[in-house]
Design goal:
Oligomer: single chain
Shape: elongated
Number of helices: 3
CATH architecture of one domain: Orthogonal Bundle
Strand content: 5-15%
Order of helices and strands: EEEEHHHE
CATH superfamily of one domain: Winged helix-like DNA-binding domain superfamily/Winged helix DNA-binding domain
Length: 113
């Protein structure tokens, strides 16, 4: 018997994902932000960009509440490195939506998009 075990977690091998603490009372859960042209017509963007609940929570804690990444990571129950990766991906998605005129979909915790 080998000294390690092969296990599939969330589509791949490795450790089980650590639960993340997310504010349940956000008004933005399950919302779609769609771009419009200056004359009020929907902008023909493309595929929507989906923000996960942990990405929205990380953006909220760091940029709205003004917490440091260490404080925000502690509140979410993850490491500072994990929070940094979540923020990097969230910023990339928001920039992509703004530059390409794509809709932004904010997933609802536990229910998906």
């Amino acid at each position: 018997m080998p000294g390690w075990m092969w296990r599939w977690r969330r589509g791949g091998p490795g450790r089980p994902p650590k639960p993340r603490v997310i504010a349940p009372d956000s008004a933005a859960w399950g919302v779609v932000f769609e771009p419009f042209t200056m004359d009020g017509r929907p902008y023909p963007g493309g595929e929507p960009v989906v923000l996960s609940p942990d990405e929205v929570e990380a953006l909220r804690l760091v940029y709205l509440e003004g917490l440091t990444q260490g404080e925000a990571a502690e509140r979410m129950g993850v490491s500072r490195g994990t929070l940094w990766r979540i923020l990097r991906e969230a910023r990339r998605k928001v920039a992509l939506a703004l530059v390409e005129g794509r809709p932004i979909v904010v997933e609802h915790p536990g229910r998906g998009a």
